[in-house]
């Protein structure tokens, strides 16, 4: 026999459903924001007169962060720089003070920059150091980008530029037909070329 659920049962079911979704969201958020493994990637000659350090904390689901950081680094090395792309875990032993340029690349989680990168950034003295901010996300990155920029400046860094690139929201003007990640890499290479003019 079909038994109609009462209104209060209905609201209980809604509350339980929302609660389960919030717990799942929290678990996924903690998972993506964990400090990922130490990875070191480099390009250009060690003997180059200028060097850059590019820092990110890898997202476990997709590697837009890695691709964007490597595209930035490759553009620098094409102009005779030595560039290292390091995860937050790999950078901890290194000395930022030797770098001519430091690039902080964060993923956006819940409208904020990822905590691993930010926790590291907040411990750094960047007095007078030239920095660049890269903010990645599905498409809602404004707040995270602003927080990243403000934090770099509050640590004493000289912010040469800041850009956001997206996995979901189109990176290009309407009408440009190319994969979104491909466009992000082209745009970050153009941005790196612009940054080079500051040296
Ligand atoms: C729990 C969670 C929260 C997220 N919150 C945001 C957000 O607020 N804004 C946004 O643009 N992207 C958000 N994203 C998407 C990630 O930023 C995106 O997956 C990542 O930056 C993609 O780049 P990647 O290839 O470097 O991982 C979120 C992703 C997860 C898993």
Automatic annotation (TrEMBL):
It comes from the Bacteria. The keyword Transmembrane helix applies. Keywords: Membrane, Transmembrane, Transmembrane helix. InterPro entries: Flavoprotein-like_sf. The chain crosses the membrane at residues 13-33. This is Flavodoxin-like domain-containing protein. It comes from Dokdonia sinensis.
């Amino acid at each position: 026999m079909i038994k109609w659920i009462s209104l209060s049962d209905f609201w209980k079911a809604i509350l339980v459903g929302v609660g389960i979704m919030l717990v799942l969201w929290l678990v996924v958020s903690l998972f993506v924001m964990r400090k990922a493994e130490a990875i070191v990637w480099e390009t250009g000659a060690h003997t180059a007169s200028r060097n850059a350090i590019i820092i990110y904390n890898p997202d476990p689901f997709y590697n837009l962060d890695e691709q964007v950081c490597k595209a930035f680094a490759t553009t620098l090395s094409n102009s005779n720089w030595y560039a290292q792309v390091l995860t937050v875990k790999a950078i901890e032993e290194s000395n930022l003070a030797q770098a001519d340029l430091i690039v902080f690349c964060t993923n956006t989680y819940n409208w904020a920059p990822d905590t691993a990168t930010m926790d590291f950034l907040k411990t750094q003295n960047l007095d007078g150091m030239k920095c660049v901010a890269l903010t990645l996300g599905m498409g809602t990155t404004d707040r995270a980008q602003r927080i990243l920029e403000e934090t770099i400046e509050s640590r004493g860094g000289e912010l040469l530029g800041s850009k956001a690139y997206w996995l979901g929201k189109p990176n290009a003007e309407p009408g440009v037909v190319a994969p979104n990640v491909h466009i992000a890499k082209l745009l970050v290479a153009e941005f790196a070329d612009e940054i080079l003019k500051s040296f």
